[in-house]
Amino acid sequence: MGDVSWTELLDILFRWFHVFFGIMWIGLLYFFNFVNGPYVATLDAETKKKAVPELMPRALFFFRWAAMFTFILGWLLFFVNYAPNNWEQFNTTRGHWISLGILFGTIMWFNVWFVIWPAQRKIINGIKTGPPAAPEIAKRATLASKINTYLSVPLIFSMLAAGKHFLHDEWYWFVGVLVVGYFAVNGLYKTASKVSTNV
């Protein structure tokens, strides 16, 4: 392979597909929260019974597996870059931002696979065949999805910061990223509920 080592090659491949699946995952997360959520809220029960079982299983298939591949590839990248002989690099500015990204990404992955997906299965089956899922199941899934949406903006910043595009790691930068992310997502939620369907 010329002057390219196996470590470098794996780093390129893992990073490439980590970003690819991450785009798919976050894109669908935003679709669910800013497009699909306001749309489904306008549907009557009969229309939901036709639309939801057709749309959601397809969307959730790509959503949950994009989350899984993003998660796995992220950890593979971590070990390629930091183990077994580079642990000292983890205690750097780059390593600190990666730690934040790993924390948020792991929480988001857990929410997808162990909260949102199990709840959505019950919701979809309830719409298809009845009886409907208990209200607390939908509330749990909605809360987990909102948590993921709020975490996604600081997660993206952490990924960029870890790529050495940002070289500060004082505590107030971490707090600032969380605050900016909160207001950005909160603004999008407010906008989503007001978007006109007139073209």
Unreliable segments (pLDDT under 50, ≥5 consecutive)?
none
> How many helical stretches?
5
How is the biggest beta sheet arranged?
none
Residue share in helices? over 70%
- H-E order: HHHHH
Count of discrete structural domains: 1
What is the radius of gyration?
Answer: 19 Å
Q: Identify the quaternary structure here.
A: single chain
Termini separation: 53 Å
The computed structural class is mainly alpha
Mean pLDDT: 92
Summary?
The chain is mainly alpha-helical.
What would you note in describing this structure?
This protein has 199 residues and is mostly helical. The protein has one domain. The protein is built from five helices and no strands. It has helices at 6-40, 45-82, 93-129, 135-165, 171-192. Helix 1 runs antiparallel to helix 2 and helix 2 (45-82) runs antiparallel to helix 3.
Label this structure with key terms:
single chain; 199 residues; mainly alpha; 5 helices; elongated
List the helices and strands and how they pair.
Blueprint lengths: L5 H35 L4 H38 L10 H37 L5 H31 L5 H22 L7
